[in-house]
Amino acid sequence: MIDGMLARLREIVGASGVERDPSGLPRVVPDSTEAMARLFALAHGRNWRARIEGQGTWLSSDAPADFAVSTRGLDRVVSVSPADLVATVDAGVAMGTLRRRLADDGMWLAIDPPGRPERSIGSIVAAGTAGPLRQGFGPVRDHVLGLSVVTGDGRVVRAGGRVVKNVAGYDLGKLQIGGFGGFGVITELNLRLRALPRADQTLIARASRDHLTSVGRDLTEARLALQALELFSPAIAAEPDWILAARIMGTEDGVAAEARRLTSASSLLWQQLPVERASSFWHLSARAVLGGAVTLRLGVLQPGLDDSLDMLAATLDEGLITAGAGSAGGIRWSGEARIDALRALRRTAASREIPMTLERAPWAIRQQLGHFGAYREGVGALVSRLRETFDPGLLLSVALEGDGDAR
Fold it and tell me: What is the model's pTM?
């Protein structure tokens, strides 16, 4: 069967676009949206299950499948328009590569997701993984103007502009961003850009966790223009104390003025980091979450931050944690955890109306727990219909709901 499958796959994408992964599973590397569509039309007709892989730096490539699909071949920065503040890019482009290309035109994409610089932009959008810059620039969905998706049966669905409905009447962007590939494969993106700031300053302060969260509330009330205000646990910061990091961007005069407001608005001893050290600080903290096999996020707002951090410490541990200390909120935890502890955390969080999203974990955990877990009453049926709309054969190997149901 494998030889026959390899031959059919090579007919679709060419001999150079088909390889085997370390386990011997066929891996296909399409180089265009059209090739991806032909591939999934074939898979749908043959009832072949597919596992989607980006650059292989974030989610474990261990979901059960008949073949794997890598987006590494979708590696073009199609166009950059500084005048329109828009870039069109393939989903397989690495974030580090995209940053360097945009910088050549004096532009940047104002997201700083966790993970390595090699992580693909498609992975970031599919998982909806925003970093500390969500404080000043919003979540990932605020940076996506349009996208192209290949459905599980090989259709190409394109959406451009802010709000575009697909044939089922749903906003395609909102469905795909944070959908973990359960509703199709993102192949191309139109991204909102910004001009590179003239000044970019990072200040950090060390203190007890509760004191730093209190300062975060005070700074929010003071309405400081901070692009990031992030709390880091000692383990993730490689420091003996918790750290609160503030990032300020803009004109040189504006940044200097806001930095003075920051230092006068609290009793903390703020340390300004040199440019090189500031860059290393943010890059290393983004990669530090990979120190655990499991990464999850809690959609908690600032008023519930202290209680939620206590809940995490009691249920799991106080290990690799980053948390939004400003108005954007949000907690990300990484570490080692058993499925029963993760289920207990999700139940406790749900009782407080805090959504828990499993961002990365081995398949054994993803399959049981799901990225989203159990939906509220009536929502599960809607999601099932959406999956059937975009993947009629349920061939995309993605665990959304969990509880033993990988589909």
Answer: 0.93
